[in-house]
Design a protein that fits this description.
221 residues; Glutaredoxin; Glutathione S-transferase Yfyf (Class Pi), Chain A, domain 2
């Protein structure tokens, strides 16, 4: 069987999210790097497989799939014993609830603020808007108060075991910390000790730490 191919950028947020899940499940993969800076993702040969011209997508022995969360769900579904997608109906419902919360309450502000903070940290020349960053961080602070209430009652966002819903918060959960210091940032407030505890556990996982210098082809774990 052919090795799974991940088409994306080694420093790209969504590529790393997928790679983190692949690492969690010990799935070998080849990174096929797409030259986004020179518009390779907008060329006809790429659009044949990803019609929106976005990264990443995967080729799993001829099966093409795009959209980060769909890719992660597919990979986890092939490894049901991992528990990253619970199969019990009630546990699955709580997982889907948490995954929806990430998509609708966390990601909109975290991605918009986080991406601009990442651009600034990397020293790129793309324009950024400090007001946009501040506005989205303000919104995110309020959302994280709700996270604190949830996480004060359970270890992870969907219950007592980690699921894709937790991993989905990476990497934008990391990017938004670039607005503060290591000990005082939006994910590590003294006023939200359970969010801080949860966040520290996520970013300490070997699957996340494996690609601190960028995603790379991984055939052995």
């Amino acid at each position: 069987m052919a090795i799974l191919k991940l088409y994306g950028g080694k420093q790209a947020s969504c590529t790393r999210r997928v790679a983190t899940v692949l690492h969690e499940l010990n799935v070998p993969f080849e990174l096929v790097e797409i030259d986004v800076m020179n518009g390779a993702h907008k060329k006809p040969e790429y659009l044949k497989f990803q019609p929106f011209g976005q990264i990443p997508y995967i080729d799993d022995d001829g099966f093409i799939l795009y959209e980060t969360r769909a890719i992660c769900r597919y990979i986890a579904a092939k490894h049901p014993k991992s528990g990253l997608i619970p199969t019990d109906p009630k546990s699955n419902a709580l997982f889907e609830q948490a995954a929806s919360v990430e998509l609708t309450n966390f990601d909109p502000s975290a991605s918009k603020a986080g991406l601009q903070l990442w651009i600034k940290k990397m020293g790129y020349t793309y324009p950024t808007d400090d007001k946009v960053i501040a506005d989205h961080l303000e919104t995110l602070e309020k959302k994280l108060d709700a996270y604190e209430a949830i996480l004060s009652k359970q270890r992870y966002v969907a219950g007592e075991t980690i699921t894709l819903a937790d991993i989905f918060h990476l990497p934008y959960g990391v990017y938004v910390t670039y607005d503060g210091s290591e000990s005082d940032n939006i994910m590590n407030r003294a006023s939200r000790p359970n969010v801080a505890r949860w966040y520290k556990e996520l970013v300490s996982r070997p699957s996340w730490l494996a690609y601190l210098d960028g995603v790379k082809t991984t055939t052995a774990y």
